[in-house]
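REVIEWER CHECKLIST
Item 1: Sequence provided? yes
Item 2: Single chain? yes
Item 3: Sequence as submitted:
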Amino acid sequence: MDTSVNFDAVDRLVEFGLSAAVAQRMVASMNGALDAMNLPGRQLGAVDTAPQGFWIVYEGKPAGPFQEAQLIQLIAGGKLTKASYVWKPGMAQWATVENSPEVLRLIVLAPPPFVPTE
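Item 4: Structure as written out by the authors:
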């Protein structure tokens, strides 16, 4: 029996075991670092249970908060456009819908106004 073949197999098993252990430690370290990050607008230890809606500027005044379904109704009624201003908790300042991907998505997906043709 060739002992060098057996030692090569053992060496490979040890190498694989060490690689797996190192990978596990790296993943655990990264998860710990990501969990410890303090994101703006995030309160440590607080559980966010209430859905956060958007505020809009309507007729020159802030109004809201509005949930997605309400925003869709405002878009359909022509009261919310790409030029409208929106804000939600966590945003540093008011932004136009055109610069707010979450609300812009609703406008892009909204059907155009229906105009019957005769």
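Item 5: Key structural point noted by reviewer: Residues 3-36 form the longest helix (34 residues).
Item 6: Recommendation: ____
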